[in-house]
Specification:
Largest sheet: 8 strands, antiparallel, barrel
Strand order of the largest sheet: 1-2-3-4-5-6-7-8
Order of helices and strands: HEEEEEEEEE
Number of helices: 1
Helix content: under 10%
CATH architecture: Beta Barrel
Number of domains: 1
Shape: elongated
CATH class: Mainly Beta
Protein backbone atom coordinates (compact mmCIF):
# COMPACT_ATOMS: atom_id res chain seq x y z
CA UNK A 1 0.00 0.00 0.00
CA UNK A 2 2.83 2.39 0.90
CA UNK A 3 4.57 1.67 -2.42
CA UNK A 4 1.33 2.38 -4.27
CA UNK A 5 1.03 5.80 -2.62
CA UNK A 6 4.64 6.68 -3.50
CA UNK A 7 4.16 5.52 -7.12
CA UNK A 8 1.02 7.62 -7.60
CA UNK A 9 2.77 10.66 -6.12
CA UNK A 10 5.70 10.25 -8.56
CA UNK A 11 3.32 9.89 -11.48
CA UNK A 12 1.53 13.09 -10.47
CA UNK A 13 4.82 15.00 -10.71
CA UNK A 14 5.47 13.60 -14.17
CA UNK A 15 2.02 14.66 -15.30
CA UNK A 16 2.39 18.23 -14.08
CA UNK A 17 3.06 19.48 -17.60
CA UNK A 18 -0.34 18.21 -18.73
CA UNK A 19 -3.74 19.57 -17.78
CA UNK A 20 -3.52 20.78 -14.17
CA UNK A 21 -6.05 21.96 -11.59
CA UNK A 22 -5.84 22.91 -7.92
CA UNK A 23 -9.02 22.41 -5.88
CA UNK A 24 -9.30 23.98 -2.39
CA UNK A 25 -12.26 22.43 -0.57
CA UNK A 26 -14.18 22.40 2.70
CA UNK A 27 -16.90 20.08 3.88
CA UNK A 28 -18.41 17.59 6.32
CA UNK A 29 -17.33 14.19 7.61
CA UNK A 30 -19.23 11.35 9.24
CA UNK A 31 -16.95 8.76 10.84
CA UNK A 32 -17.84 5.60 12.73
CA UNK A 33 -16.09 2.34 13.64
CA UNK A 34 -16.77 -1.21 12.47
CA UNK A 35 -17.00 -4.45 14.47
CA UNK A 36 -18.55 -3.19 17.68
CA UNK A 37 -17.39 -5.16 20.74
CA UNK A 38 -19.98 -6.50 23.20
CA UNK A 39 -21.66 -3.73 25.15
CA UNK A 40 -20.45 -0.91 22.91
CA UNK A 41 -22.34 0.88 20.15
CA UNK A 42 -20.81 3.33 17.63
CA UNK A 43 -22.71 6.02 15.74
CA UNK A 44 -21.26 8.55 13.29
CA UNK A 45 -21.79 12.22 14.11
CA UNK A 46 -21.02 15.30 12.00
CA UNK A 47 -17.46 16.62 11.77
CA UNK A 48 -15.58 18.85 9.34
CA UNK A 49 -12.67 18.76 6.90
CA UNK A 50 -10.59 21.39 5.12
CA UNK A 51 -7.88 20.95 2.48
CA UNK A 52 -7.08 20.75 -1.20
CA UNK A 53 -6.21 18.32 -3.94
CA UNK A 54 -4.70 18.62 -7.39
CA UNK A 55 -5.57 16.94 -10.69
CA UNK A 56 -2.98 16.09 -13.30
CA UNK A 57 -4.28 14.75 -16.59
CA UNK A 58 -7.35 14.92 -18.78
CA UNK A 59 -9.73 11.97 -19.22
CA UNK A 60 -7.55 9.82 -16.98
CA UNK A 61 -5.99 11.80 -14.15
CA UNK A 62 -4.03 11.53 -10.90
CA UNK A 63 -5.43 13.33 -7.86
CA UNK A 64 -3.19 13.69 -4.76
CA UNK A 65 -4.50 15.70 -1.82
CA UNK A 66 -4.19 16.62 1.85
CA UNK A 67 -7.07 17.32 4.25
CA UNK A 68 -7.20 18.33 7.91
CA UNK A 69 -10.29 16.94 9.58
CA UNK A 70 -12.06 16.68 12.92
CA UNK A 71 -14.40 13.70 13.18
CA UNK A 72 -16.92 12.75 15.84
CA UNK A 73 -18.26 9.31 16.79
CA UNK A 74 -20.92 8.86 19.47
CA UNK A 75 -20.05 5.88 21.68
CA UNK A 76 -22.54 4.17 23.98
CA UNK A 77 -21.18 1.63 26.49
CA UNK A 78 -23.55 -0.61 28.46
CA UNK A 79 -22.24 -2.45 31.54
CA UNK A 80 -24.52 -5.31 32.53
CA UNK A 81 -24.87 -6.13 36.22
CA UNK A 82 -23.74 -9.56 37.35
CA UNK A 83 -26.54 -10.18 39.85
CA UNK A 84 -29.38 -9.43 37.43
CA UNK A 85 -31.12 -7.23 39.99
CA UNK A 86 -29.07 -4.04 39.63
CA UNK A 87 -29.90 -1.76 36.70
CA UNK A 88 -27.45 -1.75 33.80
CA UNK A 89 -25.03 1.18 33.65
CA UNK A 90 -25.06 3.10 30.36
CA UNK A 91 -22.30 5.58 29.47
CA UNK A 92 -22.62 7.90 26.47
CA UNK A 93 -19.83 10.12 25.16
CA UNK A 94 -18.46 11.60 21.94
CA UNK A 95 -15.11 10.39 20.68
CA UNK A 96 -13.44 13.30 18.83
CA UNK A 97 -10.39 12.82 16.59
CA UNK A 98 -8.28 15.35 14.68
CA UNK A 99 -6.22 13.92 11.83
CA UNK A 100 -4.37 14.79 8.65
CA UNK A 101 -5.40 12.70 5.64
CA UNK A 102 -2.92 12.25 2.76
CA UNK A 103 -4.35 10.58 -0.30
CA UNK A 104 -3.37 9.70 -3.87
CA UNK A 105 -6.28 8.76 -6.10
CA UNK A 106 -6.59 7.70 -9.71
CA UNK A 107 -9.60 9.15 -11.51
CA UNK A 108 -11.51 8.95 -14.77
CA UNK A 109 -13.94 11.46 -16.29
CA UNK A 110 -17.04 9.53 -17.31
CA UNK A 111 -18.73 12.73 -18.53
CA UNK A 112 -16.76 15.68 -19.87
CA UNK A 113 -18.72 18.65 -21.25
CA UNK A 114 -18.12 22.38 -21.33
CA UNK A 115 -20.38 23.12 -18.34
CA UNK A 116 -20.58 19.85 -16.39
CA UNK A 117 -18.18 16.96 -15.61
CA UNK A 118 -18.56 13.73 -13.66
CA UNK A 119 -15.49 11.96 -12.27
CA UNK A 120 -14.88 8.62 -10.55
CA UNK A 121 -11.89 8.32 -8.14
CA UNK A 122 -10.25 5.44 -6.30
CA UNK A 123 -7.00 5.10 -4.37
CA UNK A 124 -5.18 4.74 -1.04
CA UNK A 125 -4.95 7.26 1.78
CA UNK A 126 -2.97 7.53 4.99
CA UNK A 127 -4.35 9.15 8.16
CA UNK A 128 -1.99 10.77 10.65
CA UNK A 129 -3.75 10.97 14.02
CA UNK A 130 -3.04 14.28 15.76
CA UNK A 131 -5.34 14.26 18.81
CA UNK A 132 -8.09 12.24 20.51
CA UNK A 133 -10.61 13.54 23.04
CA UNK A 134 -13.75 12.19 24.71
CA UNK A 135 -15.88 15.22 25.46
CA UNK A 136 -17.37 14.20 28.81
CA UNK A 137 -14.43 12.06 30.05
CA UNK A 138 -16.65 8.99 30.41
CA UNK A 139 -14.80 6.64 28.04
CA UNK A 140 -11.27 6.89 29.38
CA UNK A 141 -9.78 6.56 25.88
CA UNK A 142 -6.94 8.86 24.83
CA UNK A 143 -4.49 9.21 21.96
CA UNK A 144 -2.21 6.55 23.42
CA UNK A 145 -4.94 3.92 22.90
CA UNK A 146 -5.10 4.50 19.13
CA UNK A 147 -2.77 3.74 16.23
CA UNK A 148 -1.39 7.06 14.98
CA UNK A 149 -0.94 6.00 11.34
CA UNK A 150 -3.72 4.26 9.42
CA UNK A 151 -4.17 3.07 5.82
CA UNK A 152 -7.52 3.40 4.04
CA UNK A 153 -9.08 2.77 0.66
CA UNK A 154 -10.78 5.89 -0.72
CA UNK A 155 -13.55 6.06 -3.32
CA UNK A 156 -15.48 9.05 -4.58
CA UNK A 157 -17.55 10.74 -7.25
CA UNK A 158 -16.78 14.28 -8.37
CA UNK A 159 -19.10 16.79 -10.00
CA UNK A 160 -17.61 19.88 -11.68
CA UNK A 161 -19.89 22.79 -12.53
CA UNK A 162 -17.80 25.61 -13.95
CA UNK A 163 -15.69 27.03 -11.12
CA UNK A 164 -17.29 24.80 -8.48
CA UNK A 165 -16.60 21.19 -7.56
CA UNK A 166 -18.67 18.87 -5.36
CA UNK A 167 -17.40 15.47 -4.17
CA UNK A 168 -19.03 12.82 -1.96
CA UNK A 169 -16.46 10.27 -0.77
CA UNK A 170 -16.18 7.09 1.28
CA UNK A 171 -13.14 5.86 3.19
CA UNK A 172 -12.77 2.20 4.19
CA UNK A 173 -10.27 1.59 7.00
CA UNK A 174 -7.62 -1.06 6.31
CA UNK A 175 -5.78 -0.74 9.65
CA UNK A 176 -6.94 -1.39 13.23
CA UNK A 177 -8.03 1.78 14.98
CA UNK A 178 -6.81 0.65 18.41
CA UNK A 179 -3.32 -0.35 19.45
CA UNK A 180 -2.55 -4.01 20.04
CA UNK A 181 -2.12 -3.82 23.81
CA UNK A 182 -3.54 -6.27 26.40
CA UNK A 183 -6.53 -4.07 27.20
CA UNK A 184 -7.60 -3.30 23.62
CA UNK A 185 -6.28 -6.30 21.68
CA UNK A 186 -9.74 -7.83 21.28
CA UNK A 187 -11.22 -4.67 19.73
CA UNK A 188 -10.65 -5.12 15.98
CA UNK A 189 -12.56 -1.98 14.95
CA UNK A 190 -11.60 -0.05 11.82
CA UNK A 191 -12.70 3.40 10.68
CA UNK A 192 -15.54 3.84 8.22
CA UNK A 193 -15.96 7.41 6.99
CA UNK A 194 -18.14 9.37 4.62
CA UNK A 195 -17.45 12.90 3.45
CA UNK A 196 -18.86 15.68 1.33
CA UNK A 197 -16.80 18.64 0.12
CA UNK A 198 -17.52 21.77 -1.87
CA UNK A 199 -14.67 23.64 -3.50
CA UNK A 200 -13.29 25.67 -6.38
CA UNK A 201 -11.54 24.68 -9.62
CA UNK A 202 -8.39 26.71 -10.17
CA UNK A 203 -6.13 26.22 -13.17
CA UNK A 204 -6.08 24.79 -16.67
CA UNK A 205 -9.14 22.70 -17.60
CA UNK A 206 -9.04 23.01 -21.38
Amino acid sequence: MKKTLITLTMLSSMAAAAQTQINPQAGLTFQSLTQEPDGINYKAEMGWQLGLDARFGDKLFIQPGAFLGRSVTAVTQTITSQDGATANLVYEDDLVRTSLKLRAMLGYRVLDTYQFDIRLMLGPSYDVLMSVDDRDDKLGWNKGDFNTGLWNLEAGVGFDMGLFTLAPTASFGMSRAFKDNPVLSEIDSKYMSYGLTLGFNIGNDD
